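re: that chain from earlier
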Amino acid sequence: MRAVVMERFGGPEVLRLRQVEDPVPGPGQVLVEVAYAGITFVETQVRSGNAPPVFETPTLPRIPGNGVGGRVRAVGADVDPGLAGRTVVTTTGGEGGYAELALGRAQDAIPVPPGVSMPDAVALLAGGRTAVMLHRQAEIEPGEWVLVEAAGGGVGTLLVQLAAASGAKVVGAAGPGKAELVRSLGAVACLDYTRPGWEREVVELTGGAGVDVVFDGVGGPVGTQGMSAVRPGGRARIYGMAGGSWPQAGEHVKVISAPPPDAARTRALTEEALALAASGRLHPVIGQTYPLADAAGAHQAIESRMTTGRTLLIP
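^ sequence. v structure.
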C-alpha cells in the first residue's frame, strides 16, 4: 500500500510517500480502507520534534495519523465478524492513519450514522469529541459572554456553534480573513488576534465587564491576552498550546481542569458529536483537503495558519 512515512523529525518535507507492506489486523483489531484521514495541529508539532510535554517522543520511522474513516476490510481474532464491510471512523492509537490502509482497535471503531457524510464524520472524530467535552465542562449559561480563540480552526468552529446554541453571546478570535466564517457559525463578532489590542476590544464588546468564559487552545501570547479579557471570577478552559507555551491565566480566572477521558468516555463523546451532526445541530467545517501524496503541503498550510476548519487527507 501507499503510506506517508516519517523517518526523521523536521519540517513538512520529512513526510514522504512510500510503498510499504499492508498491515494485518491482530486480535481485537480492524483493518480499514482509508477514505479520509484527519490531520490535527499537534501532529505538526510531533513531526517537527516540538510536541507538547504531555506527548512522548515517538520512535521512527513511523506513519503519522491518529484518525481515519472508511470501510472495514478485515477483522482480527476475537472481533465481531459483522464489523467487516461496515463504514466506520476510528482512532489508530497514535499512528498509521496517513495511508491507504490503517489498523484500529475494534472497540474504537464507530459506525457512521445515516445522514453524516464520511468527510464530516472524520472531521468530527477528534475535533467533535473534544468540543463536546470542553463545552460540557464549561457549563455555559444562556446570556453569558464566551470568547473562543482559534475560532476558525477545527475545534474552534465547533465550540462557536455549541456555545451559541447554549444561548451564549460568542466572540471569536481568529487570524485574518476568518471573521465572516466565524460569524456565520453564530458568533456576534470575530476579532483578528494578530492585531494589537484585540483583547481590549473583546472587553468593550461586553460593555466593559469582560467575558464569562474563554476557550483557549492557542496558549502563548494570544492565550495570555485572551485571559485578560475574562471578568473577575470568570472561567477558562485551556486545552492546547499551539502557540508553543501555556498561557498565563491570572488569579482573577478560574481555570477548569479535568482528567483526560478514558476509552469508553472518548467513544461516547465521539458518538454524541456524530449524533449532533446527524440531527443537523453541529456542522463541521472542512476547509481544505489534500491528496495523500501532498501530506507535506497540508502540514505546511496548517503551520502557516492558512487553513480554516479541519484539514483532511484523501488516499
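The mean pLDDT is 95.
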